[in-house]
Amino acid sequence: MNTIVIFDIDGVVRDVSGSYRRAITDTVEHFTGEAYRPTPVDIDQLKSEGIWNNDWEASQELIYRYFEAQGQPREQLRLDYKNIVAFFQARYRGTDPENFTGYICDEPLLLSPSYLEQLTLAGIAWGFFSGATRASANYVLQGRLGLQSPVLVAMEDAPGKPDPTGLFATVRLLENNIDKSAIIIYLGDTVADMYTVEKARNLQPEKTWIGVGVLPPHVQETAARRDAYAQTLRQAGAAIVLNNVQELTPAKIQQLCY
């Protein structure tokens, strides 16, 4: 039986603790008048709710919650979502419309092209489904990893996770050359990623869906935090939780599937 492996990008392929997450903290701080700068734990707690995969929406929600804690109902706040997105993008992407100059330029990579070559040599099909914009995703996949036209479903292509529409679309693109009864593994670093697999399983029970959790680097700084985050991913449905995506070797994939 064939196997398809689909990767989330942020926190799995690249470390975004100093980029996307830094942009969240900058944005929330700016729109709360410098009164509140969320910690990494604050952001993780929000994302553990499983519905804040989009970092623009997560930023807005943290701003709303800050003001609600000050006794101001969100209905009375006049937050302009477009302004929030524009500020965030100026930090993350940079202000040059032609080139990336922001925090995105400094993201450490978490996998290598040779790892993907190992999967290909083992006959494992692979692709990417991410809530990142297509430009941001291709910056890392094509620009930095040197992949040639990788299978990618990005923010513009499907509803946000945990809606599994984008996961189904990625599978369809990868199924063109293989057995339609393939086992599908999705690797992600958030509760929303694991919920996406669960929803896919409920909607397409004829297929075998396996969620694999990956611990993003920022939660591995202390054992207590790492273990708590791993437990959160398992409770959300992860079959296993890895410290790094490249631990999912062809041999480990075989163990998972058979």
From TrEMBL:
SUPFAM superfamilies: HAD-like (SSF56784). Keywords: Hydrolase. Pfam families: Hydrolase. Coiled coil: none annotated. Gene3D superfamilies: HAD superfamily/HAD-like (3.40.50.1000). Transmembrane segments: none annotated. GO terms for biological process: DNA repair. GO terms for molecular function: phosphoglycolate phosphatase activity. NCBIfam families: HAD-SF-IA-hyp1, HAD-SF-IA-v1. PANTHER family: PHOSPHOGLYCOLATE PHOSPHATASE. This is TIGR01548 family HAD-type hydrolase. It comes from Fischerella muscicola CCMEE 5323.
